[in-house]
Design a protein that fits this description.
Radius of gyration: 23 Å
Order of helices and strands: EHEHHEEHEHEEHEHHHHHEHEHEHHE
Strand content: 5-15%
Helix content: 25-40%
Distance between the termini: 56 Å
Number of helices: 15
Length: 411
């Protein structure tokens, strides 16, 4: 029976839930470069609100921000972000840095498994050379690698680590056996073993690309139906009565997955000489939706002769409902567009961390909206608390003010 000591590198939305589950079956060390995060986890507080204090308290896991803990690990799981740069090209910096750190502390014979979303080829062509250089060892002799893409859905309490089937792969059949054994011990839904690391990488990156394209279609329909004065929500509800109609809906596409992963796939496609037309068409539509919603609101304000020097209240700044993650939030596009037209905004969000918002975007969240103060109230993120308090937010409008619901979540 394979019973390795495991170290999970990166304790965010992906790494922490996985580490907690693994700690029920193996000796696990959770590593993160953030001392603040480690101290919070030691105090049984998950800043991302994904893992309860009780679950952390019951966990047998050790937390550390000292790289030396990697030296005793037989099985290392790397779960770090893979963002894009200002030119929308893959930014592999977090992956390079974590690989260098892992390599410098690599135990002979250890298996290093990557979970970060990448384009096909990154694990073997980008990460392995860094591991070799940092460790002074040789791949497939002194250490081994695998790839098992994360499938975490932040805020989802139904589809969790243990209930989502895990794709697994390894650089040798023996490595794949070990990867399968580790994940198979915690994932009740089972594992799906593929023939190569590249296949596993490709499978992951197309998951969110497919979602992105489907949402782009809904967004294009929203634009079209708005011009015809037809309710997109009602159209989709009617179409959804057919068994094989896919339940996607229009909206802002941000975050660190759906709004990012297609660029990784497109980058690799361009590199090998293929221009990805559908993928990039979807990206162009979704990236433009913040501007579209802002301009539609402005048009309505003009029609109603509302003050352009007044204020608009924006409800929500996180990239997803009931999740505190603000990375790559497209609500910012709405804010910038309104500001460019001279319209001031107040942003209210009880889920987001105000310090994170201030640090990331230079925006100060308001403590509470003001009654009868706003030319318009724009529901950008359908947090559950917001949906329960719609009447209160409507009371914040001036006479003849506009309640603009970009998700059409409110009747």
């Amino acid at each position: 029976m394979y019973n390795p000591k495991i170290c999970v590198v990166g304790l965010g939305y992906v790494g922490l839930p996985l580490a907690v589950e693994l700690s029920k079956h193996f000796e696990v060390v959770g590593f993160d470069i953030s001392e603040d995060r480690i101290n919070a986890l030691k105090s049984c507080n998950d800043p991302n609100k994904e893992i309860s204090a009780d679950a952390l308290r019951e966990s047998r896991m050790e937390f550390s921000n000292e790289a030396g803990v990697l030296k005793s690990a037989d099985f290392v799981i790397v779960a770090v972000p893979t963002p894009i740069d200002d030119h929308k090209n893959p930014d592999l910096t977090p992956l390079y840095r974590s690989s260098e750190m892992v390599g410098a502390n690599l135990k002979p014979g250890a298996v290093v498994v990557y979970e970060s979303t990448v384009y096909p080829g990154v694990t073997e062509e980008e990460c392995v050379p860094v591991l070799e250089k940092a460790s002074g060892g040789k791949w497939k002799r002194d250490f081994f690698v695998g790839y098992s893409p994360e499938r975490i859905n932040p805020g989802d309490k139904v589809h969790t680590v243990t209930t989502i089937k895990k794709i697994v792969s390894g650089d040798t059949p023996e490595t794949a056996d070990k990867v399968s054994a580790v994940y198979g011990a915690v994932v009740k839904a089972g594992v799906h073993r593929v023939s190569s690391i590249k296949v596993a990488e490709a499978a992951k990156v197309i998951e969110n690309t497919q979602r992105d394209i489907n949402i782009a279609l809904m967004n294009e329909l929203r634009i079209f139906f708005d011009k015809m004065n037809i309710s997109t929500k009602e159209v989709l509800e009617a179409a959804g009565t057919k068994w094989n109609f896919l339940p996607f809906e229009p909206g802002l596409v941000g975050g660190h997955c759906i709004g990012v992963d297609p660029y990784y796939l497109a980058y690799k496609a361009e590199e090998i000489g293929h221009h990805p037309q559908i993928i990039m068409a979807g990206r162009r539509i979704n990236d433009a939706m913040g501007r579209y919603f802002a301009r539609e609101l402005i048009k309505q304000m003009i029609v109603r002769k509302l003050r352009m020097d007044g204020k608009v209240l924006i409800l929500g700044i996180t990239f997803k409902e009931d999740v505190p993650d603000i990375r790559n939030s497209k609500v910012i596009d709405i804010v910038k567009e309104l500001n460019d037209f001279g319209i001031k905004t107040d942003i209210y969000d009880t889920v987001a961390n105000p310090k994170d918002v201030s640090r990331e975007y230079g925006i100060e969240l308001i403590d509470a909206p003001k009654s009868n103060s706003y030319q318009a109230v724009l529901l950008a993120v359908k947090h559950e608390l917001f949906l329960k308090s719609i009447d209160e937010f409507k009371s914040c409008l001036v006479e003849n003010g506009i309640f603009y619901d970009i998700k059409q979540a409110v009747s």
